[in-house]
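Section 5.1 Outputs to date
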Amino acid sequence: MTLTTFNASVFCSKELTKGLHKQLICISMVNIVFAFTSIAANTLILLALPKVTLIHPPSKILLRNLVVSDLAVGVVEVTIVIYWISMVQEWWQVCRDFFFAHLIASTILVPASLWTITAISVDRLLALLLGLRYRQVVTVKRVYMFLIAFWVSFGIAVLAIGFSSNIAWRIFMATIILLCVIISIYCYSRIFFRLRHHQSQAQAQTQEQANERVSLNMTRYKKTLSTTMWLQLALVICFFPYGALSSFAFREIDKKRSSGFFLALYVTVTLMFFNSTLNPILYCWKMNEVRQAVKETLRQLFCSPDQ
C-alpha cells in the first residue's frame, strides 16, 4: 500500500478500536518504556563513541549512523504512543495527524536501519579482503559521501514513490529488502570461506612473530564481526513478524475493520521498535571498548568532580 492509500478515517475510528482500549493502554505503556530506554541508551552510546579509539573511523561512522537511526526510531515510538492514546481518548484530529506522522517516519527510518546493517557487513568484508589497503580505500570522506547520498536519495525516493502507485511502492520496498538480504548473505558467506582459508594459511606459517601479529589482528576482527552478526540476527528476529503480517494485515484492517489484525499488527510494531533498545545492549555486551567508554561516560555524568 502506498502512503496515500492508508485511510486515516479507518485507522482512527471507534469501530476499529472497540474493545481494545485496555490493550492499547498496555502496549502504550510498554512502548513508552522502550522509547525512553532507546532514546537514553542510544544517546549514551553517541556520547561514548568518541572515547572508543580501537574502531576504525569509517566503521565508527557507520556505527554512529545506526545509533542515530535507532535514536530517531525511539522518538518515532513516542508519536505512535500518542496515536494510540488519542484513539482511546477519541481525539480524532490528533489521531489522524500522528498516524501519518509515524507512518511516514517509520517508512524512512526502518529501511535505513536495514541498509546501515547491510553497509556494516560490506565494511567487514572489505576489511578482510583488502587487508592493509583497507584504510586507504575505505576512508572517512568516502563513507560520509555514501551516507549523504543514501539519505538524500532514499528520502526523495520514499516521498516520490510512496505517494505514487501501489505497485511501484511494493516493488520498491521489496527490492530494498531483497537487495539487503542478498548483499548480507553474500558478505557473510565470503567472510566465512575467507576466514577458513586464512586459518589454514596461518597454521602453515613458521614465523612465530608473524603468527602472533596475525592472531592478534584476526582476534580483533572476529570480535567486530561477531558484533555485526548479532546486530543482523537481532534485526531479523525483531523485524520478521511485522514483515510477515503487514502484507495482508493492512488490507484486512482497511476492508473488514478487523480489530484483531489491528492489535496483532501493532504488537509486531512494538517488537520491531524494541530492536532500537536491544542494539545498545549488544554494543556493550559484545564490544569491550564501547562498554568501558559507556562506564566512563556514566561516571562523568553522575559523579561530581570531587569524587
